[in-house]
């Protein structure tokens, strides 16, 4: 009888211990859940990148601006009289195409309008003015130029086009919020300043 009583007491004690242990995971899970930051807290702490109106405007305008540059580059690849200018046109086209895809993805993820849907007075080719020419006039100037003159006209117009992109990118660096969009703007400034230097050197060469 004494042995049975001892076993019963031991079983009761074990049940109490197990019951106490059973509440621990629930308590721990509750504490972990309450410690998880909300979406709003994540944005405030920088875990989730936000964007502002400057980011949206920059991306919308730069997409259209890049489309204009690619249009000009495609034309000079067909009409260039020198391998240097043709190769430059190919580089511009190959670099800016993927950037358009990247920026389009940003607008879609942000829930913002694509350039074709947005209503901006200066949206036509990023509001570019190339030495008094708009995009259509610039294309006609390249198309109507003969021989090496086509190369020269392209270089002069693309220099102005790049300067416009740099100005837009500098404004983004100053006013933007989205880190990837700011990084792209900085890359555009670096790349297009280098290409301006390259094109100015080409214009000084005797073959033009």
TrEMBL record:
It comes from Rarobacter faecitabidus. Residues 24-45 are annotated as: Disordered. Keywords: Signal. It comes from the Bacteria. The keyword Signal applies. Gene3D superfamilies: 1.20.1260.10. It holds the Pfam family DUF305. Residues 55-203 form the DUF305 domain. Residues 1-19 form the signal peptide. InterPro entries: DUF305_CopM-like (IPR005183), Ferritin-like (IPR012347). This is Uncharacterized protein (DUF305 family).
